[in-house]
Design goal:
Layout (H helix, E strand, L loop, with lengths): L18 E2 L1 H6 L3 E3 L11 E4 H12 L10 H25 L7 E6 L6 E10 L5 E6 L1 H5 L8
Length: 149
C-alpha cells in the first residue's frame, strides 16, 4: 500500500465542534478548498486564502520570478499532506475512543519554516457537514470562527 492510498478511519463528531458558516467563508474567499478530489469518504478540507498565497510564493515562484511548480502540483501536495495530517488526528482520537476536538496543533513545514499548523474541526451551520480547516495560527486567528451558534 502506498503512502497516498486512501485510509478510512471512523471519526466521532463531538457536540462541542463550533458551528460556523463555512459556506459563507468560502463564498467570500476567506477560505478555500484544500483538495481537488473528494469522493465523499472524508470530511472537506479548507485553508485560509492567505495560506494558499503563501504556498504559491514558496513553491511556484523561483529566483527572478521564474515559475518552479504549477499551482495544480502544489494543490496536489497540499491535499496529500492535509489528508495525512487528518488521518493521524482521527486515528489518534479513535484509538482513545474520543470524539474529534475543536482544535489541534501540529508541527510541520507545510506553510514554510518548521512551525505550528493549527487544525480546526468545524461544522457548517447550514449543512451540518463537519470540515477541517488548517493553516498557520495567525491566518486562522484572522477568521471569524467564534461566531458559533
Amino acid at each position: 500500500m502506498s503512502d497516498d492510498a486512501p485510509r478510512t478511519v471512523a471519526a466521532r463528531i463531538g457536540d462541542d465542534l463550533p458551528r460556523v458558516d463555512v459556506i459563507e467563508l468560502a463564498n467570500t474567499r476567506r477560505i478555500m478548498h484544500a483538495e481537488r478530489h473528494n469522493d465523499g469518504s472524508r470530511m472537506p478540507m479548507f485553508i485560509p486564502t492567505p495560506s494558499w498565497a503563501r504556498l504559491l510564493e514558496l513553491h511556484c515562484m523561483g529566483d527572478g520570478g521564474q515559475p518552479r511548480l504549477a499551482p495544480s502540483r502544489v494543490m496536489d501536495g497540499l491535499e496529500r499532506a492535509l489528508g495525512r495530517i487528518m488521518t493521524e488526528v482521527v486515528r489518534h482520537d479513535a484509538g482513545q475512543d474520543a470524539p474529534l476536538r475543536p482544535v489541534y496543533e501540529v508541527t510541520s513545514d507545510l506553510f514554510g519554516a518548521e512551525g505550528p499548523v493549527e487544525i480546526r474541526m468545524l461544522v457548517d451551520r447550514t449543512t451540518g457537514v463537519a470540515c477541517m480547516l488548517a493553516g498557520p495560527p495567525a491566518d486562522i486567528a484572522a477568521l471569524p470562527l467564534n461566531t458559533a451558534s
